[in-house]
Each structure stands twice: as C-alpha cells, then as structure tokens.
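Think of the structure tokens as a kind of shorthand, similar to the way a musician reads notation: each symbol stands for something richer, in this case the local conformation of the backbone. In the example below we present two proteins back to back. Begin with the first one, reading the sequence and then the tokens, and try to describe in your own words what changes along the chain.
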Amino acid sequence: MRWIFFFNGWGMTEDAFPHLSLEQVEVINYPYDIQEIKDLLEHHKNDTLYAVAWSFGAYYFSKLPKEIQNHFHKKIAINGLPETLGSYGILPKMCKFTLENLTPESLRSFYKNMDFHGNISKKFTDIQEELAFFYENYQKPENPFDFAWIGENDRIFSEKKLIRYYEKERVPYQCFFGGHYPFHFFQNFFELLGDTKNDL
C-alpha cells in the first residue's frame, strides 16, 4: 500500500487542510520527533512510502538523518527548498525582521500572503519560538528531493528563485497556478505524487 508522510511547515498543523482526506497520510508537524518518525517507519515497513515536504518542511526534512530520508521511494518538495535562507529562498535579514516584529496580527498578515484564510490551533508563543529556533540554528543542508512543485503566485518563496535552485540541483519540477498555500489547487494528497502508478 502507498502511504504519504507529509512534513508540515512552520506553525502549521492538520488545521491547514481540513477539507483533505488524511487516509493513507501521516502528517508530521514541527518540531519533528525523530523517534516518532522511526516508529512510524517501522509501522509502515511493508508499505511504499513517499515524503512530501511543504514550505519550511522542505528544510526540516533535509535536516533529517539520511537513514530516515532513504526509507522514501520518492521525496517531493512543494513551495519550499532545503536552502530556505539565502539567495534562493528568504533573505536572512527578512527572516530576522519577521521574527523581531512577529505579533498575532502580523502572523495573520503572513497567512494572508500565503493565501491561507483558515485558523491554526497552535499557541502563538510556540509559533514564535519555532521561527526563533529556525533562524538561530539555520545551517544550509544538502538537497534530498527528487521532484518539486512550484506555485506561480507564491509570495513567500519566489517562483523564479525556486526554479533557479532546482535547476541548479538538476531536480525536475512542475509549476502550478497557485500561491504558497497549495491546497486550493491540489484537492488530494496523492495528486502531489504525480505519475507514480507503477510504483506498487
């Protein structure tokens, strides 16, 4: 059986996509628990596994041990990249500005820029601490992904920058008509896998 491990991004929970079925989907929310992931991998050892990492989740997934990454038949990034800070992603000074000026109101503005209009049941202080930890401990990782989805209207990660990054890494990608929040365009998690019908 095919299963997706969906690696969520900064400040997100399952609240971000209440309209999508989570059948055959394991949602991994930050902060990622290595032992929990290992336990899930053991539970699914007889399944065909796919990793899908959204937004900052692409960075977090890239930092996982290779022994975990190698369990996945295909590793897909959506509207994100391993080098989250830097010339291909978000400029460090912009991340610092966002962190220093983060309030519940500015977080709602960030969600609006994402094209996300829902609510996340996560404490604001936890979201703030997640961003602080990310910024203060950032280290550029290697790319583990074999495919990338790129939103043409993404206002968090520039489409042009993401294309440059994945072309540099020689990773195939596909652009779609959508913003940073991709779940207006994709109506099922398995759509994110692309052509994987012959993987079983």
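Once you have a description of the first chain, move to the second and do the same.
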Amino acid sequence: MKAIVALLLPALFASGPVFAEDVRLSVVVHGLQHERGSVRASLYNDPDSFRKEARAVAVRQVSAVEGDAVIHFDGLAPGRYALMVYHDENADGKLNLRLGMFPREGYGLSNNPRVMGPPKFEASAFDVSGPETTTDIDVRY
C-alpha cells in the first residue's frame, strides 16, 4: 500500500499546475466608434512590463466592430493582471501617438481609471480567478 501511495503522490502533485492554469478571462470592450482596423488587447501581470506589448503575458486581436467587442484569454493562471486595449484603426499593430505621448487611436485600461500621465499597473490591476472572470473596458478617443 505504501508503495502505491509513493508512486501516485508525485503524479498528483505534478498534475496540479495543469488544473490551476485553466481560467478564462473575457474582456468586453465598449464604445468602439467604427469597424475599421482591429482591436488589440495586451494582458500584463508585472508592473515593470505594463504597457510594453512585447513583454505582455498575452496579446489578442479581433476585428473591430462598431459598439462592443469581446476578447478572450484562455488557459490563464489565477492571479493579478492589468489590461490595455486599443482600437488599431489603421491596422499597423501599434498604438499611434501624437507628440510621442498622446494616443491618436481609441484606447482603454482595465478598471477604467482616469489617468493624468502614463497609466500605472496598480490603477488597472484586478484579480483573475476561475473558472471565468469578466471585465469591462471603455474605449476613449
């Protein structure tokens, strides 16, 4: 009996993370003005990488629609995350800026914080837990 437990116990612990990383995050993006381009969403779990799309946990893109769009992130581990979305109107894969700092395209952040200056991770961070978490983001133009 001890031999069976000794064999099965490591297998039980080895399979734990597989079940832990099975959360779906649904992001409802509100206020898209038109159908041109796409909507990009970047998911972050680290303040140092926030708003640096190349360092995001995951990036998703869907076709733009007028009104509301839904974007899904599957297979996430529970934890604290922040999102940035933008309406990539010209489909160039980046948020275009005026004077290098003011968005030319519609954008939004999780928790919909009002920001003066660069957005902070803490203001946009929220908890993701399973099996599904839904969050709403308003796009500002």
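Compare your description with these statements about the second chain. Residues 21-138 form a domain with the Immunoglobulin-like fold (CATH 2.60.40).
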